[in-house]
């Protein structure tokens, strides 16, 4: 059985593109960032510990992931409220930042973890544009206070990005098929 250590609707939808049958389980890991680690190690730590926190049988394969947004050496996590979301988006307004996603695939005999990094560049827009985005898409459950897949964001705020779109969404499935084959060997 394949277990997704996440109840995120976005991660479930993306996983369905690669795996037809799986069980989605809420990880019991309390997310916290280890500030002394690099962003790459922090996101890996979160992904691995989510996988470890899920109850499973020895033959199960557990898939987990985590995503962080980094701007000027600061991690921009999920906003606490709309004002926090606005302040984060204002900080990113007209600038580039990094999005890091770690993917962990844990099998009976092997665990793989890979980190993917994308750069996202935002247009310089008005405060009203940022407020309208928050009103329409309510990005309170998204690191950095945005979802790159949100139509309003894509058309009005996003300038460009590098890397895989799914890395920025939070689940780099482009690498998942290979990782599943390798962990199942």
Low-confidence spans: none
Count of extended strands: 7
Radius of gyration: 17 Å
Q: Report, as a whole number of angstroms, the end-to-end distance.
A: 15 Å
CATH topology type: Maf protein
CATH architecture classification name: Alpha-Beta Complex
> Strand-and-helix sequence, N→C?
EHEHEEHEEHHEHH
Number of domains as seen in the coordinates: 1
Q: Determine the fraction of residues in helical runs and give it as a percent range.
A: 25-40%
Report the biggest beta sheet as strand number plus sense, adding barrel if it closes: 7 strands, mixed
The percentage of residues in β strands lies in 15-25%
Number of helices: 7
Average the pLDDT over all residues and give the rounded result. Answer: 92
Gross morphology is elongated
Quickly name the level 1 CATH class.
Alpha Beta
Structural class: alpha/beta
């Amino acid at each position: 059985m394949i277990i997704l250590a996440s109840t995120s609707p976005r991660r479930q939808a993306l996983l369905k593109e690669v795996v037809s049958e799986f069980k989605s389980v809420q990880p019991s890991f309390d997310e916290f960032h280890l500030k002394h680690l690099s962003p790459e190690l922090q996101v890996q730590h979160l992904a691995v510990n989510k996988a470890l926190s899920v109850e499973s049988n020895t033959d199960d394969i557990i898939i987990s992931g985590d995503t962080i947004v980094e701007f000027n050496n600061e991690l921009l996590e999920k906003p606490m409220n709309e004002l926090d979301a606005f302040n984060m988006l204002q900080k990113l307004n007209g600038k580039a930042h990094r999005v890091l996603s770690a993917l962990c695939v844990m099998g009976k005999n092997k665990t793989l973890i890979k980190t993917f990094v994308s750069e996202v560049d935002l247009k310089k827009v008005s405060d009203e544009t940022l407020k309208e985005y928050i009103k329409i898409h309510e990005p309170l459950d998204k690191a950095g206070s945005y979802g790159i897949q949100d139509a309003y964001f894509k058309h009005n705020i996003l300038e460009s990005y590098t890397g895989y779109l799914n890395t920025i969404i939070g689940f780099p499935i482009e690498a998942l098929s290979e990782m599943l084959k390798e962990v199942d060997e």
